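dumping these here so i dont lose them again. two proteins, back to back, each one seq then structure tokens. dont judge the mess
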Amino acid sequence: MAEYANVGRAAGHLPPAGSLPPAPGIAAGSLPPVPGIIIETVPPAEMGAALAADAAQKAKFGIIHLIIRGFLCTPFLAYGAATVFVMVAQGVPLSVAGLVFPAGYVTLSFLGLEMATGSFALMPIGMYAGTITPSDLVRNWTWTLTGNLLGGIFFGWLLWFSWTYGGSVAPPVPGQRHLLIVIAQAAEHKIEYMKYGALGWCAAIGMGVLCNWLVSLGSVMSKATRSTVGRALLMWLPIGMFFALGFEHTVVNMWLFPTAILSGANVSFYDWWVWNQIPVTIGNILGAMVLNGTLWYYTHTLQK
């Protein structure tokens, strides 16, 4: 076809290539929309608008529904994490086994459940866009975290109770016994920040920031495509990287520490909260709210 067009231009029947103005409503250099064709990729500005709309929807949830959805969320993260720990107990490197963890996240996402670490980025976007108020943000974070904590404690207790027959015996299945040992060792490692005092506490915050810079991208990148398979893949990438790198996730820890304490880990309630849960939660908030909910959203949307 290009050859015929060139002949036509040579004969004076067609204008030079590129001389025609773009059709109304179509930017120069862009292809006109083709009827019946759906573009899978969503540009960042449209992603921001979709996230702001999601925040408005979440602000309408009643407290009981935030708690229920948060409660149901944590066990799916725990299923993914437990699978990783089983693989680690069998000698698989964490950097490899961690790539399995996102299966739990993708499951809870498609089920429409509530994970606080995703809301740490989503709700600020809604606040900046004007679809929610600061009080809506605080309300969502408070009750989602409450639900996540209750779900983590319940799942941890149920796992321990079922495998140890209520604590009467060690798990009779070697794989189960090894899993509880790995979980206990992981919890003991996660409070080693206390050995370094204030610097250790700040390091826990840093591990939380590094974690949720990636994890909160799960909810953000799920808006980057209209394809179900594409959504699962885009969510899988940052979540898999976080777990393989061993960063600190506050919701995962809401399951891991109760399970470890029940399994005999040398960890107290004080150690859990003061030297992990509180600083990690602060880091998760900063990583999501500042880096994704503010800077990413600003450069694609707010500056307009």
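---- next one ----
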Amino acid sequence: MSELFGEIDPPQRLLMGPGPVNAHPRVLRAMAADMLGQFDPEFTTYMNETMALYRRVFMTENRWTFLIDGTARAAIEAALVSLVEPGATVLIVRSGRFGLLLSEIVERCGGQIAAVDADWGEVVPMERIAEAIAMAKPQVVACVHGDTSTTMAQPLEGLGELCRAHGAYSYVDATATLGGMAVPVDAWGADIVTAGLQKCMGGPPGSAPITISDRAAEFIFARRHVEKGLAQGEAAGARPRIASNYFDLAMVMDYWSEKRLNHHTEATSMLYGARECARIVLAEGLEPRFARHAAAGRAMTAGLRAMGLTVYGDDAHRMTNVTGVLIPDGVDGERVRTRMREDFEIEIGTAFGPLKGKVWRIGAMGYNARKHKVLITLGALEAVLRAEGFALPAGEAVAAAMESFAP
């Protein structure tokens, strides 16, 4: 007889890595609501409400603001496969793992890569981006707002205006920053911005908010091709067909419009969760929420430095919600992470690529960007490091963090 295994009963672990983080209980409760048919008027009302809520979260007036079913990477792929035509030049701003990921996706879309790079732990000045745009003459400029692999936040003021002046479309991956740092889409002038729920939005992975300018929507609709089983005589777009069916934004937008094209079955429970994430964010207020994340990040940094640890990267451009810290010489970084998990039920992150084995990444975002969770994490890390034989001043980390939190 086949084993049925046990009922899922995960440990009550505090997720203080670079994401995912613990989901807000209200989000989990919303996701337990019953199913509705995807074209029920009650459900399409929830869809319209979700669009309206995320316009405010993205700080935009864009009509085309909705959800892609899948993790944050689903929205990244949908944006790029719908924007990048075969042979098109795409300028990618790269200074970490996730800028390199954009290159990987663009190559698979048949695009030609031009890149403007910075070392990991740095950002690319807008002047260098402007020079690269003038030289490469790209169709699309793609970048990451907050790259959790390096914990750096790329400045984006003026990017949209710069791209428009050269006839390019701009794409921004804001997976790790939406809901925790300002993502002012209209102020940036960005054409497409995508995100996820599992970081600052305080939800689970599985649904990806996206917002699209009218200018970019017009371009995407010029690539429209309604699948044959759904077509009713619509004229195909004049530009090359989008290479993916599932991630074809022209059809997905028709699904989220009054047309209600039967492109896919909406992930009902994830829409409930995404809707509740946005309600929680907006009820708190964007500016207070950004301030809460910034305070948690400052306190985490102060506590780590009080332990004698070296914080990674450029202070001027550090993300507020994820902090990188160099693993001290002689300390087994993975053993520390294991003891944090097994002894304290706290998860902190490892690193990728050139930083693998050299850096821990510690997050304080969404539901976890709170004073007591920062203090608990710092106290646990101090205890583990002392148990591993690393000499550090006792109690200073928590004291420094508390001082940082003090009004």
